[in-house]
Specification:
It is a single chain. The longest helix has 14 residues. It contains ten helices and six strands; from the N terminus they run βαααααβαβαβαβαβα. With 221 residues, it is α/β, with parallel strands linked by helices. It is 43% helix and 13% strand.
Length: 221
Amino acid sequence: MGSAERAAVFDVDGTLVDTNHLHVVAWWEAFRQAGHQVPTHAVHRAVGLPSTDLVAHLLGDSRDKDQDAGISAAHKALYGQYVDRLPALPGAGPLLRRLHREGWAVVLATSAGGAELSALRRALDADDAITATASADDVDEGKPAPEPVEHALELAGVPAERAVFVGDTVWDMLAGSRAGVRCVGVLCGGIPRTDLEKSGAEAVYADPAHLLSSLRGSPLA
């Protein structure tokens, strides 16, 4: 699809749009409705996994798997209350536009799909700068598997060695590292710097605005 020389691949939730804690509340309530008390700190660390993987990660293999679909559906409905007013994180749109102007293929790689992905794109308001989107609907395995990042690179037509992946979770850093791309972490999703670095982040910034202001000395220079 793309003819750019290099690709900047971005996670969206918690990286470009301020949604992680909304997801935490929605998942916490979905679990509560199904009779499970899951601490919010545990939910927070699982955010970024695909829905089915998140439920399995938090409830374990001994859970009643017949509940999985209902819990995921409840999360989707609860989170859906917020989608018309999701806020982009500071500097998110300007960062994507700057990279686009500088010749990067900007690709979104997200576990969101459908209406949720449309809402995230509306929040970003930077469609003119986005080359392609690799969503959960396009891959068999979500992060931390490398497939979402590899699919994003295919869409951009750029090899891993000429790409950088920006994300906010451990799952993002693991997926990017396994795909062979350089990884940049942001702290705006609420995951500590040390966790991001241990999982493969080469550099860590506060948020998109911080990355934008530090672009010259970053892996995206």
